Amino acid sequence: MAGVELRQLSYFVAVAEELSFTRASQRLRVVQSAVSTAIRALEREVGAELFDRDSRRVALTAAGAAMLPEARTALAAARAAAQAAAGASGEVRGVVTMGTLLSTGRVNVPRLLGRFSRRHPRAAVRLQYSPSGSAGHVRAVLDGRMDLALASLPGRAPAGLAHEIVAEEDLSLLAAPDHPMARRSAVTLAELAEESFVDFPAGWGNRTLVDRAFAGAGLSRQVPLEVPDYVTARALICQGLGVGFLPAGAAGEMTGVVEVPLAEPLRWSVSVIHSAARPLSPAAAALLREVHAELEV
Q1: β-strands 196-199, 222-226: how paired?
Q2: Which helix (H) or strand (E) holds 35?
Q3: What sign does the CA torsion over 133, 136, 142, 146 have?
Q4: If residue 95 lies in a helix (H) or strand (E), which one and from where to where?
Q5: What's the CA gap between 93 and 83, in Å, rounded?
Q6: What single string gives the DSSP state of each residue in 173-205?
Q7: Residue (of 104, 149, 137, 157) closest to 287 by Cα position
Q8: Tens digit of pLDDT for each residue in 66-121?
Q9: What's the rounded Cα separation, in Å, for the pair 42 and 50?
Q10: In this structure, how many other beta carbons lie within 10 angstroms of the beta carbon of residue 263?
């Protein structure tokens, strides 16, 4: 393994995460032939094929799956070492990958990123959303693809995750103005069980919170319409195609829909998360301080 290069590991991780040499080369901003050459050289060095590939698909082999977490750890350690050396002068450098959500409560992400950029001009932030919401952020933080994230964690946090609640608010139930529920002074979950819902994909924190609330009450519900953003959710609710739950802060800014009080409010929270097993880089630690500073604004 003495001949393994960090560049090869970086290319390997990109292909493993994208499961495509084309997408990996686009992400890395190098030609595809360079990625293919680096992967072949890495496979020769480790003495095993890392990918099953044909004209239609790319998949990790058993050797590739075993190597992936170690490769991520090695790359994270290399980044941390470089940032520590750069930080010896007192100047924060490096790239921090941070996950965020559509709603972050009292944490104003653009504002904290602005402060971070002004205070640490030699550092950069990669801001990412996950199609699978908070669950995707948790996986990315635990396996080293993200340094820290804002995530909603209903229930017990996974082992190995450091977490701190930084915002809380109720979920608001929204309905079309002419929906039968719209004129109610309050509704119960049992009364909502027969309604059609507009909701977000599995893994989103607000979806998980609502699903658990219904299950805890011994109820089930129908979610025929899953959407990835608030604009589409509002439009579908406005047309009377279903009711839906959104964080109160986002719901309060929406027109064309009505907020219906819940008899028993559902409390939604946002936490800042990072790995409990790996120390934060100086740049990531500085960004975490800016998250905490939001609580004092």
Answers
A1: parallel
A2: helix 32-46
A3: negative
A4: strand 94-99
A5: 6
A6: EEE-TTSGGGG-S-B-HHHHTTSEEEE--TT-H
A7: 149
A8: 999 889 888 888 877 776 776 666 678 888 999 999 999 999 999 999 999 999 99
A9: 9
A10: 12
Q: Are 176 and 239 within 8 A, CB to CB? A: yes
- Nearest CA to 189 out of 269, 264, 267, 268 is that of 264
Q: Tokens for 178, please give them.
A: 């002419």
User: Alpha helix locations (H) across 92-149?
Assistant: 109-119, 133-142
Of 71, 273, 57, whose CA–CA distance to 153 is shortest?
Answer: 273
> pTM (2 decimals)?
0.77
| Integer angstrom CA distances of residue 4 from 8, 10, 38, 158, 237 | 7, 11, 10, 32, 54
- What domains can be seen in the chain, in order of their start residue? 1-71 (1.10.10.10), 167-269 (3.40.190.290)
Question: For residues 60 and 50, what is the distance between their CA atoms, to the nearest angstrom?
Answer: 6
Q: How far apart are the first and last CA of the chain?
A: 50
In Å, the largest CA–CA distance within the chain is: 71
Q: Per residue in 3-47, pLDDT tens?
A: 888 999 999 998 998 899 998 998 888 999 999 999 999 999 999
Residue 14's Cβ-side half-sphere holds a number of Cα atoms within 13 Å equal to: 22
Q: Which two tokens stand for residue 263?
A: 């008899």
Nearest-5° Cα angle at 113, 109 to 119? 150
- Residue 176, CA atoms < 13 Å, CB-side half-sphere: 15
